[in-house]
Specification:
With 325 residues, the protein is α/β, with parallel strands linked by helices. The protein has 9 helices and 13 strands.
Length: 325
């Protein structure tokens, strides 16, 4: 299977390329990015695939089967639609879009073309969260509360590698998207109630640097999510599952019980790398001609919940300004 990686020299483009090295039967035949010098050095590791700044040039390759998009959030929906309309399967990094309208448009195009279109909701694939999901599906656990912290120190526009970024990240449409989808995926329900608060807007970045989100599903399970770009300390997302049969703490691909005892995840999946596992699912779904876990259709409900949260944030902002006036 021949694949193109777009944004290949970015933080997550590199992670996908590393993951593909471990997957048999997949060949990287095109790299797309803004820095051709960096791309050329990467290309040396992949039998000199096509290197270009233009996605259109890669999509013109007749033998190209699939595209992985690791590009700025604002480009996700339009580029994913461009790939589908060119007849290529697509895996687009989280989120599939930064608004509900574009998310729905992408799902409509996928349904029309019948191609595989998958959103990079990696949390569904991390072995730590898979272990929890398997226990829930087996009837051995029920979630009472998910307490989640997503913390970064990002007062300047930098990426996960600490390098300057050409676009602005977003706590709600990017980082909260992981948890909103995971909460609904693990409970098997869509949030029936949401609450949200945000801190001051950064004068240069134009985004809120702190945010608090609450969700509840019809069965009664709740999720409490705290997000910050102001946290000076260990960064990342940390999940505490408070269940009727124990408490569990997930840190990316590692899982601990409530007393910090590690849980063996060696038999959960063929890899302990969530990025590799999501790529494996993408390629398997293409080969098997089926809908993948984390398809854009499946993830649309998360985008709908994010839209409701955004409306709650806008209402809170309006109420605050009305009181101030």
């Amino acid at each position: 299977m021949k694949v193109c990686v777009v944004g290949a020299n970015g933080a997550f483009g590199t992670k996908h390329l590393e993951a593909i090295k471990n997957i048999e039967g997949v060949e990287v035949t095109a790299l797309v990015g803004r820095d051709l010098d960096k791309l050329q050095s990467v290309a040396a590791e992949y039998n000199q695939p096509l290197v270009t700044e233009e996605l259109e040039q890669a999509l013109a390759l007749e033998d190209l089967d699939a595209v992985i998009l690791a590009t700025p959030t604002q480009m996700h929906a339009s580029q994913a639609i461009q790939c589908l309309e060119a007849g290529k399967h697509v895996l687009v990094e989280i989120p599939m879009a930064d608004n509900l309208e574009d998310s729905r448009r992408l799902v409509d195009v996928q349904q029309t073309t019948g191609l595989v279109a998958m959103a990079g909701h990696t949390r569904r694939f991390n072995p730590s969260h898979q272990w929890i999901h398997n226990k829930i599906q087996a009837g051995e656990l029920n979630i009472q509360q998910m307490d989640v912290q997503t913390y970064f120190f990002r007062r300047t526009n930098t990426n996960a590698k600490g390098e300057p970024r050409s676009w602005t990240d977003h706590l709600l449409w990017h980082h909260a998207c992981h948890t909103v989808d995971l909460f609904q995926y693990q409970t098997g329900e869509v949030a029936s109630k949401v609450t949200a608060l945000q801190g001051p807007i950064h004068p240069e970045l134009g985004i809120a640097m702190d945010m608090s989100i609450g969700m509840k599903v019809p069965s009664g399970a709740i999720c409490t999510l705290s997000l910050s770009f102001n946290n000076d300390g260990p960064f990342g997302t940390f999940f505490r599952y408070i269940c009727d049969e124990g408490t569990f703490i997930a840190r990316y691909d590692d899982l601990f019980d409530g007393r910090e005892n590690p849980i063996d995840l060696s038999d959960v999946a063929v890899s302990n790398n969530g990025i590799e596992l999501i790529d494996r699912e993408f390629f398997a779904a293409i080969r098997e001609k089926r809908e993948p876990n984390s398809s854009v259709r499946q993830c649309l409900s998360a985008m709908e919940t994010l839209d409701r949260i955004e409306q709650e944030l806008e209402s809170d902002w309006s109420r605050g300004h009305a009181c101030a006036g």
